[in-house]
Design brief:
This protein has 375 residues and is α/β, with parallel strands linked by helices. It has helices at residues 20-34, 52-57, 73-89, 102-111, 130-143, 155-165, 181-193, 215-227, 243-252, 268-273, 290-297, 308-313, 328-341, 345-358, 361-371; strands at residues 8-13, 38-43, 62-64, 93-96, 116-121, 149-152, 172-174, 201-206, 232-237, 259-263, 277-280, 302-305, 321-323. The chain folds into two domains: 4-178 and 360-371, Glycogen Phosphorylase B (Rossmann fold), CATH 3.40.50; 181-358, Rossmann fold (3-Layer(aba) Sandwich), CATH 3.40.50.2000.
Length: 375
């Protein structure tokens, strides 16, 4: 019979920002608790902390590392504080969601006697950024002796990790990010039933406003649609450091009546239910795109950039329209075609089925738990 300590899991997050990985982690924690696993979350930064009330409401203990603001001392402090925390909590496994920092976290965890360690890899190696690539490669190699598995969120990411980080395949695993499909379906269908019949064609994108996404291509496509007389409205859902840059671009292109910045939202499935099309404008380092999967579950016709992760999720374009990276004209044309004729019903139904069977949060939680030897 397993001792409760065999079910303790320490999860490292950058912060409790209410987007992306932290939201996914909250969903996973709730699934793991139902399996008898006892998660504790520790963050590298004290802010943003939007999700703190939700983690606490779910009964997930929260801790924070107190790291210096800069310099190499941060890494030694992280290893030492990870050792202290693991000595206190005695987790059976440690999961690091940030890549790179995991090397120092796991040094401390191993010194404290933690048996299993794994790091989540959510983005393709930054091969186009030489300085970042060198740093990540060094950190991944530094962490290899204390890291059991690099869990990649797609086969595309795994191939990049093996090729560019020099990690052997036996040290990697592919586990897709998941969503609560039933919850997305319920909220999206309810919102769809309440849509006003006479309105503009709504195109949405859900993603952080950061450099690894490509909202500018969609914004410029909106300008072409407006010039062509297509009555489209663009919703950009998410927050990030590029907000002011996008506000200036929207104003310069005369799109203040066309493009709406919704900011950070916790009701994404409801917004998806009000959309006529979902665009995922990405760059080659995109890892998977949880919002893309949510759109599949919500039966929203999809247009995505033709990069590795999107091809994998959309089954080589069988479940959505793929357009070349950064191609404004192709993006505008694809949106215009959907506005005129819609997407084949069989395609959106097949996309929902793939979300249900391949990208479920329950399957993700189970596979992570097995990888960490918690089941």
């Amino acid at each position: 019979m397993s001792h409760p300590s065999d079910k303790r899991l320490l999860i490292v997050l950058s912060s409790l920002c209410a987007e992306g990985t932290p939201v996914l982690t909250l969903d996973l924690c709730q699934r793991w608790q139902a399996m008898g696993i006892l998660p504790t979350v520790v963050t590298l930064a004290s802010s943003p902390d939007d999700l703190e009330p939700e983690f606490r409401a779910a009964g997930v203990p929260l801790r924070r590392f107190a790291l210096p603001a800069g310099g190499a001392a941060r890494f030694a402090a992280l290893a030492f504080q990870a050792w202290q925390l693991c000595r206190e909590l005695r987790p059976a496994a440690v999961l690091s969601m940030p890549l790179g920092w995991h090397a120092f976290t796991f040094v401390g965890a191993r010194a404290a006697g933690v048996r299993h360690t794994a790091a989540h890899v959510g983005n393709y190696p930054p091969v186009h950024l030489q300085s970042q690539m060198a740093k990540f490669r060094f950190l991944v190699q530094l962490g290899r002796p204390v890291t059991d598995t690099l869990i990649c969120c797609s086969s595309y990411i795994e191939a990049g990790v093996i090729e560019h980080f020099g990690v052997p395949r036996r040290k990697t695993a592919v586990i897709y990010n998941g969503v609560d499909v039933d919850q997305v379906v319920g909220q999206a269908e309810q919102a769809r039933a309440q849509r006003a019949p006479a309105r503009r064609f709504v195109v949405g994108m859900v993603a952080r406003l950061e450099v690894h996404k490509d909202q500018p291509t969609l914004i410029r496509a909106a300008a072409q649609l407006k010039a062509a007389g297509v009555p489209a409205e663009i919703w950009l859902v998410g927050e990030g450091t590029r907000r002011q840059e996008f506000e200036r671009l929207i104003a310069e292109l005369g799109l203040t009546d066309t493009v709406k910045l919704w900011g950070m939202r916790r009701d994404v499935p409801k917004l998806l239910g009000q959309m006529d099309a979902f665009v995922f404008s990405a760059k080659p380092d995109e890892g998977l795109g949880v919002a893309l999967i949510e759109a599949m579950a919500a039966r929203v016709p999809i247009i995505a950039t033709d990069v590795g992760a999107c091809r994998e999720v959309l089954n080589d374009g069988a479940l959505g329209t793929l357009v070349p990276e950064g191609d404004v004209a192709a993006m505008a044309s694809a949106i215009q075609q959907l506005a005129r004729g819609g997407a084949p019903p069989a395609r959106v139904l097949a996309a929902r089925e793939r979300a249900q069977t391949v990208f479920s949060i329950g399957e993700m939680a189970t596979r992570y738990a097995r990888c960490l030897a918690l089941l």
